[in-house]
TrEMBL record:
Keywords in alphabetical order: Carboxypeptidase, Hydrolase, Membrane, Protease
Location(s), subcellular: Membrane
Penicillin-binding protein transpeptidase domain: residues covered: 217-516
PANTHER family: PEPTIDOGLYCAN D,D-TRANSPEPTIDASE, PEPTIDOGLYCAN D,D-TRANSPEPTIDASE FTSI
Gene source species: Acidithiobacillus sulfuriphilus
The protein's name in its UniProt record: Penicillin-binding protein 2
GO molecular-function terms, A-Z: carboxypeptidase activity; penicillin binding
Lineage of the organism: Bacteria, Pseudomonadati, Pseudomonadota, Acidithiobacillia, Acidithiobacillales
Gene Ontology terms: biological process: cell wall organization
Length: 559
């Protein structure tokens, strides 16, 4: 009884004084975000420890005379500091985030009552601009905002924890009163991307965009059999570690978000549809010996006049007239079905934010002129990722495999869907290899030691008013290698080049050659062309001027 009286009366003043000097603090325990890794475990995005400075308004508001000192240490305008201090909660307000530890230590060296630090993390991207549009970035709270960071945010982010601690009025920790749920760290994400192939693709693409003074470019490299995306690049890009100049409209993920009318790279699918339904056979020929193949009120032309072409030559010389004749023999429902089953007009399923589905208009509304134009890539819009996946189906003996950004374990059988007969796909493989041979429009895509198959495209840019710009084009090359047993496929798009030879075979094909030659080595794909055969082929090479003439395409740019 006496003891109780002493506690309540004699020690009342002491206890009140001690209580006034001790505070319970409810502090968050940040969760470390999971790392994003390439297919070989090399970091593409990691979290590094940084500091946040926060204040307890109940204490800090009594230190107004020292606010300028804190603002100077943090390099903040005083009004900004005042707004942040008074704009938080009753017990907690952030003043500065993601500071280097040494700056936070200097702040704490000021010994301003009510000022504290908290350990958090900041995202760091080792590849910088090389993978920025693909990976995206996080905000100050560690939440994914764009790209892979957004698509896999739930997997990567982890769960913050909480603890309640007793501190004195100088911010010194006295004890932990109660531990709340502990922080659960985010999980690592293993992507299908190969950082080295990503680098080669980006640097080759950037060089082409700069050389030809183009508006932008994008490229995709995929594994033919698994659908794994090994590289996905866009240019121009941005520095994700310093986003002061970031503009979403300028630096987006063009490989999945930008659609365009692709031009002649659609011709193989026109041929596939016609072969599949029996409208033509592998031995069919087409008389293109005219300066104007008239369909309704439109004049379809080839840049170089030919006589009678077989299917291999229609592709090799990129004949618009030949492709239009094939399409007009094919029921429109069958061509529509082929385009849809190889992935056009729908998102790919790769799971990246902002992916555009493109457009394949319903066949019931096709006029005869549209049927002809669809044959060589007008009246349809696609993305580079869709093109890579569709050509992957040709390379994979007619089986379409959905693109994936997650690594597939070695030996795993990936299920696909058959979209064309095996023989049709193999015929196309052989004919597309001819596009890379002497006289073909893709001659500049040839890789020493490897057989290559592919197709060029040079399409006029839509003006947004129902027509086309007179002198503005998009250039494309899509191909796979080795042609005899395809392993990798790549699509390259360079938009609106304004300098030099503005054709798919000149602008985009060399990007393929540089990137694919590196990718084949990195993926341990053995050369399949004997040195003697390669040397013999090179001995027959045309002059640079002749190569460029053929690379223009015998119809690529004609409408």
């Amino acid at each position: 009884m006496v003891q109780a009286w002493r506690l309540q009366v004699e020690n009342a003043g002491f206890l009140r004084e001690q209580g006034a000097q001790r505070y319970l603090r409810h502090l968050p325990l940040p969760a470390m975000r999971g790392a994003v890794l390439d297919r070989n475990g090399v970091p593409l995005a990691i979290s590094v420890p940084v500091k946040a400075v926060w204040v307890d308004p109940q204490l800090f508001n009594h230190q107004v005379t020292r606010w300028p000192q804190l603002a100077q240490a943090l390099e903040l305008p005083l009004p900004t500091l005042e707004r942040r201090a008074r704009g938080g909660g009753a017990e907690f307000a952030f003043i500065a985030r993601q500071l280097p530890p040494e700056r936070a230590a200097a702040v704490m060296g000021l010994h301003i009552p009510g000022v504290y630090t908290l350990t958090e993390s900041r995202r760091y991207y080792p590849l910088g601009a090389v993978a920025a549009p693909l990976l995206g970035f996080t905000n100050v709270d560690g939440r994914g905002i764009e790209g892979v960071e957004l698509a896999y945010n739930q997997w990567l982010r982890g769960t913050p924890g909480k603890e309640t601690g007793l501190q004195d009025n100088r911010g010194q920790a006295l004890s932990v009163v109660q531990m709340g749920p502990p922080a659960e760290q985010g999980r690592p994400l293993l992507l299908s991307i190969d950082r080295n192939i990503q680098y080669f693709a980006y640097t080759a693409l950037a060089a082409a965009v700069q050389q030809f003074k183009a508006q932008s470019g994008s490229a995709v490299v995929m594994n033919v059999h698994t659908g794994e995306v090994l590289a996905l690049v866009s240019y121009p890009s941005f520095n994700p570690n310093n986003r002061q100049d970031y503009e979403p409209g300028l630096y987006g993920n063009r490989a999945v978000a930008d659609t365009y009318e692709p031009g002649s790279v659609m011709k193989p699918f026109t041929i596939a549809a016609a072969l599949d339904d029996g409208s033509i056979d592998p031995n069919s020929t087409f008389d293109v010996n005219t300066n104007c193949f008239r369909v309704a009120n439109y004049c379809i032309q080839d840049d170089v006049r030919h006589g009678v072409l077989n299917l291999a030559q229609v592709l090799k010389y990129s004949s618009n007239i030949g492709a239009a004749q094939i399409s007009l023999r094919t029921p429109p429902a069958d061509l529509y079905h082929m385009l849809r089953t190889v992935g056009f007009g729908q998102v790919s399923g790769a799971g990246l934010p902002g992916e555009a589905p493109g457009t394949v208009p319903a066949w019931q509304g096709w006029s005869i002129a549209r049927r002809a134009a669809m044959a060589y890539g007008y009246g349809i819009s696609v993305t580079p990722l869709q093109l890579a996946a569709a050509y992957g189906a040709i390379a994979n003996d007619g089986v379409y495999v959905q693109p994936s950004l997650q690594r597939v374990n070695d030996g795993t059988q990936v299920q696909g869907s058959r979209v064309m007969p095996v023989q049709v796909a193999r015929d196309l493989q052989g004919w597309l290899a001819g596009v890379i041979s002497r006289g073909g429009t893709g001659f500049l895509a040839a890789i020493p030691g490897y057989t290559v198959a592919g197709k060029t495209g040079t399409s006029s840019m839509a003006d947004g008013k129902g027509g086309f710009y007179k002198n503005r084009v998009n250039t494309t090359f899509v191909g796979f290698a080795p042609a005899d047993h395809p392993q990798l496929v790549m699509a390259v798009v360079v938009r609106d080049p304004t300098q030099g030879w503005r054709f798919g075979g000149v602008v985009a094909a060399p990007v393929f050659r540089v990137t694919m030659s590196a990718a084949l080595r990195l993926m341990n794909v053995a050369p399949d062309m004997p040195a003697a055969q390669w040397n013999a082929q090179m001995a027959k090479r045309m002059t640079t001027a002749q190569e460029r003439l053929w690379a223009e395409g015998a119809g690529d740019a004609a409408q």
